[in-house]
Amino acid sequence: MNMRLYSHFLSFQRIPLRIVLSTAVVSVMLGVGMSMMGQPLYIIVLFMLLPWMPVMLFESLWKIDHYHWIAVFAVITVLQLGHVSEHIVQTSVLVLTNTKTTLACPPPVDSDVYAQRAVAAGLRDSQVSPTGLSASVIVAPNANGEITRDASGDMVSGPPACGIFGQLDLEIVHLIWELLGWTLTLVLLTQFPRNRWIWLSLFFATIHTFEHLFISYTFLLDSNAIYEGVRQVWGTVADGRIVTAVPLGREPAMLTFYDVAGKFGLASKNGMLGIFIPALNPYLPTRPFMHLYYNLLVTVPGLIAFVLELRHVYDRYLARALPQLKPAELVAATANLQRRVYKPGEIIVREGEPAQNFYIISEGNVEMICRDSHGQEAVYATRSAGEFFGESGLLQDGQSHMTVRALNPVEVLAMDRQTFEQLMQSSDASRNRLERIARDGFSQGEGEQIKPSMNRPGFEMAQASD
């Protein structure tokens, strides 16, 4: 396992370390601030995530540009891990709080209707206006749908078992997410068809997506309320920014198939399997745990597949610059590339100085400057993304033969002398090509000789490459 390669790929490349650290500080400060203001958990986490969104976006775009599909794979994996984390939080709350919480997803919102119910029940001051916030505390209902109290008469309450962002615990959100995840997994399979773990992930993603298609059908399309039943009634009490949902009994209601069984899906407790085979129902997991299992069966094989594919990752600009290299050589060299950026007019390499690196341009343009026999500087050529410089000094006398200056904002991938020499030793084809370029002044990929951009007397054609 090439830990250096994994570290290189997973570390921030485009975003400087100072920006990462500043973002972390701002994130923590926002989290502390929201906590001191008494905001519910989902607001705290949301504000902590907001500063990271532009950072992750720009870093992801850079990685996609350099690594293509393996970077897309990384983004999909991170999203799937975030989704399964929601299910882990939800089921952890159910396990750790036992009877002190209940499933009320999405949580009741402190609206006019719920607030007025609490006022009528004598639980809320009529002068306290609704906050519009989702309940972050749920009082457990008893068998009659009323307040459960402990031996001392206090209300039994706990957090809603809805994950962190329970407000998004909607059937349409689940359906869109699963359809998107299934589609992206299928796309990944077209790019990595030999990875068996992606096939396994797609298999379970298909089952999970079919489950949500069934649930969403009963929710969205089967609107016939033909079943007599009861519905839980809630009221909300606000204490600053903390909203508590209080059960106020049950009321008769006509229910749809979704309310009776559809929301439990096919294989969860009280779902279709439990209805048709009642003997199995006591042994089936409830919906939160069933969907946690589904997501683990999708995400874990996907994570394994990503780790396996990461062993073969290489920078596409390196592959464009040195197409003769074998995949294994590209992978080994990628782990040793160092990203550097230069401002317009900044000198990258100075003529006559020791040659230390081989440079591959990944963004921007540079100009190659050398001196004629009269000591006058002349722009010999320009090079752009996918081309390179610095090879002649490393292959010949160890000194830079040209000054290289950034024409605009430039990003290069610098390869140190040791890595470059190892590549040249392992790849005769690449060495022969670079030696020819250094000797004759041929361009990076076209096979056409570079012509000097200024025709000065005494211009030295021997100094053709860098």
Question: Can you give keywords for this protein?
Answer:
single chain, 466 residues, alpha+beta, 4-stranded mixed beta sheet, 4-stranded antiparallel beta sheet, 12 strands, 45% helix, 16% strand
**Main beta sheet, described?**
4 strands, mixed
Measure the end-to-end span: 36 Å
What share of the residues does DSSP label as strand, in percent? 15-25%
- Regions with little confidence, pLDDT below 50 for 5+ residues: 442-466
- Return the structural class: alpha+beta
Q: Total number of β-strand segments?
A: 12
Report on this structure.
This protein is α+β, with helices and mostly antiparallel strands. It has 16 helices and 12 strands. The chain has helices at 3-10, 17-36, 41-49, 52-67, 69-97, 112-120, 171-191, 196-220, 257-260, 272-276, 287-310, 316-321, 327-334, 391-395, 417-426, 428-440; strands spanning 137-139, 157-158, 227-239, 242-255, 337-342, 347-349, 357-363, 365-371, 377-384, 388-389, 403-406, 410-416. Helix 2 packs antiparallel against helix 3, helix 5 packs antiparallel against helix 11 and helix 7 runs antiparallel to helix 8.
How would you summarize this macromolecular structure in one to three sentences?
With 466 residues, this protein is of the alpha+beta class.
Write the layout of secondary structure elements.
Elements lengths: L2 H8 L6 H20 L4 H9 L2 H16 L1 H29 L14 H9 L16 E3 L17 E2 L12 H21 L4 H25 L6 E13 L2 E14 L1 H4 L11 H5 L10 H24 L5 H6 L5 H8 L2 E6 L4 E3 L7 E7 L1 E7 L5 E8 L3 E2 L1 H5 L7 E4 L3 E7 H10 L1 H13 L26
Parallel strand pairs: 1-4
Antiparallel strand pairs: 1-2, 3-4, 5-12, 6-11, 7-10, 7-12, 8-9, 8-11
